[in-house]
What we know:
There is one protein chain. By secondary structure, the chain is mainly beta. The chain folds into 3 domains: about 1-40, no CATH class; about 40-135, Jelly Rolls, CATH 2.60.120; about 195-305, Jelly Rolls (Sandwich), CATH 2.60.120. It has helices at about 20-35, 80, 175-180, and strands at about 40-45, 50-55, 60-65, 70-75, 85-90, 95-100, 110, 115, 120-125, 130-135, 160, 165, 195-205, 210-220, 220-235, 240-245, 255-260, 265-270, 275-280, 280-290, 295-305. β11 and β12 form a beta hairpin. It is rod-shaped.
Amino acid sequence: MSTLQKVNLGTPPTAVDGDTVRGANTKANANVDVLNAQATLTSAAATITSAQALTAAHVGKRVNVNLASPGTINVPSAATMGLDGLVHLRNLGATAVTLAIAAGSGDTIALTKLNAGESASLDSDGVHAIGCLFRGRTNSDNEIVNGTLTVTGGFATRPAINGNTLWDTGNLPNPASSVGMTSGAAVPAGAVGQILQASQPSGGLTANAVTNVIAMTLPPGNYLVWTVAAFAVTSGSASDFTLGVSATSGAFTFPQYTSLAAAAVANTISSPMTNMNVSANTTIFAVARCGAAASINCRIYALRIV
């Protein structure tokens, strides 16, 4: 944009070395053009209703756009707009308007879309850059971000998406508890995929007595629980071996597994997998029974699934 010029009045009293009358008026006319370019924006003569390229006549104007369907408006080139040249665009329609550079200009543009109801003022460096001087809001209180939103500060309150509160370190200290681990690293306590276990390397069973072999405490959560044991008859003979997980001491409260084998042989069996959902620390038991006195080597497992 050009600058204002002063008339050279010359040296008094004759001023013969000053501007001529024509030269002074030429400067005055040029100043009028500069001031006109800086005057309050006025609307262009016609509202744009179809995709098209803007011209030099739109520079310094408020340009109203109202497209019936999505389309592209090409802004004047930076060279056409000139240094500090400005175009104010208003999307009066109900559809988005794509903003693009003038064909073949090689310009860059900082804003590529006007949503319904939005306004934006674009200014130029006079060479190849068209920036967004300022941008208005849409027709509602809702904000639309067409690109990536980056927030370098913090949110005053926890945001929600589609009415759902986000999970973060404030309301979910360990996100792995919901998504598990896929990195190959050890699963932390409380996370999905954590395995709790306890063992009884050597124990004894009285014939036909339901016996607690192992007790283990489950923290709050949802688990798949099972137990594995090796039986060896120590006195007499037996052909039935029963093993299960229980929430009650000395009783089979969940499905158990019974193996029928030749008398007085060693036998290794696994109990059915049982789902246990506990809201507080809960003791569970590996429970076994044998038709004769036997030794037992047992281990109980709990896989966290929630």
